[in-house]
């Protein structure tokens, strides 16, 4: 196994997942979702800025050491996370519903891991998470939906 390539992929995935997670926390806070929030927006935006710098640096290693298929999958995931981050920062406009943006990021993350594991020769089957995350989010949304009061 190519240890340098694996480290480049690991660093990239870790920082991109941080950007995705922090962006989702900001969006939950803005929406008033106390269940999913928990980050001060000012601190979270500073954390996003720091993560974006780290992301830019680790991306260079992915480009330098990555296989073309994995780099393409990484770029797709990166673009999906950018849309979430832009929504969290209130930068740009997107008409896509937030659940769809989240599902796109999760699905593209699965594709990245599939390509990276295949390219590195990692066996063990699929580690896809997007379907499970979508089901969990839907169940969580339903259980935390405000009840309407009827008189």
Outline the structure in words.
With 151 residues, this protein is mainly alpha-helical. The protein has 5 helices and no strands. Helices cover 74% and strands 0% of the residues. The N and C termini lie far apart (65 Å).
Supply the helix-strand structural class: mainly alpha
Report the order of strands and helices: HHHHH
Mean pLDDT: 84
Percentage of β-strand residues: under 5%
CA-to-CA gap between the ends? 65 Å
User: Which ranges are low-confidence, i.e. pLDDT below 50, for 5 or more consecutive residues?
Assistant: 146-151
Please summarize the sheet with the most strands: none
| Number of separate helices | 5
Percent of residues in helices comes to over 70%
Rg computed from alpha carbons, rounded to a whole number of angstroms: 17 Å
**What's the number of extended β-strand segments?**
0
Defining key terms:
mainly alpha; 5 helices; 0% strand
In short:
By secondary structure, the chain is mostly helical.
Sequence-ordered SSE layout with sheet pairings:
Elements: H1 3-30, H2 41-65, H3 68-89, H4 98-120, H5 130-143
């Amino acid at each position: 196994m190519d240890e340098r390539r694996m480290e480049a992929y690991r660093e990239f995935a870790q920082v991109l997942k941080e950007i995705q997670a922090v962006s989702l926390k900001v969006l939950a806070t803005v929406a008033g979702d106390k269940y999913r929030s928990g980050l001060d927006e000012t601190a979270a935006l500073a954390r996003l800025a720091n993560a974006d710098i780290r992301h830019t640096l680790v991306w260079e290693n992915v480009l330098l050491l990555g296989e073309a298929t994995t780099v393409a999958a990484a770029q797709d995931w990166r673009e999906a996370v950018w849309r979430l981050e832009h929504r969290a920062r209130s930068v740009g406009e997107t008409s896509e519903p937030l659940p769809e943006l989240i599902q796109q990021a999760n699905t593209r993350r699965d594709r990245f891991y599939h390509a990276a594991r295949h390219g590195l020769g990692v066996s063990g089957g699929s580690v896809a998470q997007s379907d499970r995350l979508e089901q969990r989010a839907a169940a969580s949304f339903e259980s935390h939906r405000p009840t309407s009061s009827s008189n």
